[in-house]
Amino acid sequence: MSTEPEAAALPAGVTEDDQQVLSYPFERTSAMQACPVYGHLRENRPVAEVQMPSGDHAFLVTTYDDVRTVLGDPRFSRAATLEDGAPRLAAAPQKFKSLLNMDPPEHTRVRMLVSREFTARRVAALRPQIQAHTDALLDAMEAAGPGPVDLIPALAFPLPVTVICELLGVPFEDREKFSAWSSAFLSTTSRTADEMLEAQIGLFTYLSELVEAKRETPGEGLLSALVAIHDEDGDRLSHEELVFLGISMLVAGHETTVNQIANSVVALITNPERLAELQADPDLIGPAVEELLRAYPPGDDGLLRIVTEDVELSGTLIPAGTAVIPGMASANRDACQFANADELDFHRPNNAHFAFSHGPHYCIGSGLARLELQIAIGSLFKRFPTLKLAVAPEDLPRPSGMLVHGISALPVVW
User: Fold this and answer.
1) N or C: which end of the chain has fewer CB within 10 A?
2) Are residues 75 and 311 in contact, defined by beta-carbon separation less than 8 angstroms?
């Protein structure tokens, strides 16, 4: 009988071949479990070549230090993804001048036009409004009885959508329309190229028409303020930049937060010791949200970059013109940066996670998202302290083939 320890099984789709080009994105076995491929690559192939749904190749980086470099180093360009022939992630190109597709100093110019709306003081002033919306949703949920209630349409979806609609000045009654476009807009493999292009056209047309409506009848929202800036000085903000700025904020302002609320609720219910700790000390909600963002973010990877000159990461030479994908969720579980990285710790010091990215493209709405998460999660478990899942965690349905991931239905009882 052999006394040799058995070799650990490799994740599905991975072999011992260090030169293997992996098919990307990777399949997730569950909505709430970290994809095992990332952990394997982080330890064995921290810079791995992958083939994206478009057929183009990229290097996926998975360690904390390398991801930080890709997100913060100007040699890794977002603007270069718009150039003809540049590698792309999905079958349909996204060749438009949005805030997400700019590099400084152009990016800095446009970002400054909206950054004042997301200062700590402005966001803090929204607390009563967000709390009121949350309370109204929880009132309706309580009136529906002890469940089962699907928490996605009851809370996770309407709260961030309401907030971003009010902030931008977008009609709430259009939520189903732009949410469907947003879902296709963020697809990697879940939609065809034609469906993705149709969503891009749909969002552009919708926001263009809304811009014209705000021009005729200005409101209090941010979109009206941006229209005024454009009309006063087109050099500060072009029409294309205005429309795609609106699209970026509308899509990012609800898709990620919807998924993060759901992920966080499931993580707490399935970690009863941490939930009990939070319920015993509600003041822990701030660090608890940060830890939930670190461990269960609404997406595995950051936006594709193109390296503009030869760069070496973890001993691998990445030639100029190559696409690079920053594995942000993988970096968030790098044991070299986070002790006991696979465990939830609401007292974790220096929790510098990448859930909101890093560098020039650090999420401009991070403060608003944090506030929404703190209010939604804290209020939910205060109102329903016995909240639990109505199905087994492994039976929770999840969307696939998306840049963001989470749970598509979350039945709960109390």
Assistant:
1) N
2) yes
Q: How many CA atoms lie within 13 Å of 269's alpha carbon, on the beta-carbon side?
A: 25
Torsional sign, CA 323, 326, 330, 334: positive
> 351 with 343: CB under 8 angstroms?
no
Q: Helices 222-232 and 106-115 meet at what angle, rounded to 10? A: 130
CB 327 within 8 A of CB 336: no
Single-letter amino acid code for the residue at 24: Y
pLDDT tens track for 166-212: 988 988 888 888 777 877 776 666 678 788 888 888 888 988 999 99
How far is Cα 303 from Cα 146, in angstroms, rounded to an integer?
41
Task: Delimit the domains of the chain by residue range.
Answer: 22-413
Q: Cβ–Cβ contacts within 10 Å for residue 82, how many? A: 18
Q: CATH for 22-413, among 2.40.400.10, 3.40.50.2300, 1.10.10.10, 1.10.630.10?
A: 1.10.630.10
What's the count of helices (H) and strands (E) in the chain, helices before strands? Answer: 15, 11
pLDDT tens per residue, range 216-273: 998 888 889 889 888 887 678 888 888 888 888 888 777 889 999 999 999 999 999 9
- Whether 14 has a pLDDT exceeding 90, the answer reads no
Which of these, 361, 363, 353, lies nearest to 328 by C-alpha position? 353
C-alpha pair distances (Å), 19 with each of 220, 293, 310, 345 = 55, 33, 20, 36
- Comparing CA positions, the residue from 218, 201, 198 lying closest to residue 210 is 218
Q: What is the pTM of this model?
A: 0.91
